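Dear support,

I submitted the protein below through the web form. The confirmation email said the job was done, but the results page showed an empty box. After a refresh the structure appeared. I'm attaching both so you can tell me whether what I see now is the final result or a partial one.
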Amino acid sequence: MSGTQVKVLVPGNHLMVGLLGQRDEFLRLVEDAFVSARIVVRGNEITIDGEDAERVRQLFEELVTEVEQGHGLDAAHVHRTIDMLKDDLKPSEVLRDEVVRGQSGKPVRPKTAGQKRYVDAIGREVVTFGIGPAGTGKSYLAVARAVQALQAKEVSRIILTRPAVEAGERLGFLPGDLMAKVDPYLRPLYDALYDLLEPEGLQRLLDRGAVEVAPLAFMRGRTLNSSFIILDEAQNTTPEQMKMFLTRIGFGSKAVVTGDVTQIDVPGGRSGLVGLEDVLTGIEGVGFVYLTKRDVVRHRIVADIVSAYERADASRRLHHQPGGTGAEPELGKDGR
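What the results page shows now:
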């Protein structure tokens, strides 16, 4: 172990429980993440030595700042902060960007390095693709950016669209008007809007057309100017639908396309999202951001489930027979 030794002086014993967690839960998370570091706590002084001493010092200083500002820590947040420091990023800089304030006044901010890249790309590019697993904030952050752009009068309307795969884009048999027909498919985007806007304010925006919802099939033939357009669940578009959508973008508009290529339900499996980066490489104003399980901000079990599926997919690819039909190998009587 290296002889490097550093100290962190916490400004007040009253902050220690919030910093270390009940029964030192957060301290154990740090010890498990940096096994080469030895951490000793005496009163409000933390002494660290070992190869990762400097990085652990930075971690505690970041967490101390948050606790001082009254932000309660939890295990998921500590995990995310550890991940950012392991990537040589400063969490306070990553988390400083405020996208918009929700109806409760609570700011919406990126919570991971990947989310920060995603939010920055939306601000910088004309068309941003956010690709990643469930729980990474793809749709929510896109809606937050859309609300911010509308409030800042950067655009005159928000358009939400999504392929209605389960209904084969033929929604006529569903009861009600167009809004009622597409409502089940756009519910996740509605939920984000209701979280960010007062219900009465959202209804006024809907009534005057400043917020519009439409199934992807109804976008054909339109030119969308001065609009913030969000295409959700884009992995369930066909290549033809994706081309149709991307060629709807008009002057003064911005588009965000979100999707998870591990959850393709489009009939025939021909997803318009798969391989699209190769097609669009070199086009100015187009950006791709890939989020991973490290960007999951739901319950930590969601990240664990994503990891389990990734391992299962990797195992299937490993056992795939070269030159075969693509079918899984049959199991023998002994299970192998």
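Response: this is the final, complete result; the empty box was a page-load delay. Residues 14 and 44 are 9 Å apart (CA to CA).
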